[in-house]
Design goal:
about 60 residues, two-stranded antiparallel ribbon
Length: about 60
């Protein structure tokens, strides 16, 4: 299982789309996002992210 925290995901969204977008989606994200979970991947897709792009963006911070 590859997972990131909600905080990590919001940091990436804030950088890529701005603080307004991060605030808008914060309530829809679970506390831990499993990048291998189909439902979580679908949610990320609705937000304009893919598990790969999120994980790649986090790579510099991990």
């Amino acid at each position: 299982m590859t997972a990131v925290t909600k905080t990590q995901a919001l940091r990436v969204i804030r950088r890529a789309y701005g603080p307004g977008q991060a605030e808008a989606v914060a309530g829809r994200l679970p506390d831990r996002i499993d990048l291998d979970n189909t439902a979580h991947a679908r949610l990320l897709s609705e937000l304009g992210l893919t598990p790969d792009s999120l994980f790649d963006a986090l790579g510099a911070e991990l």
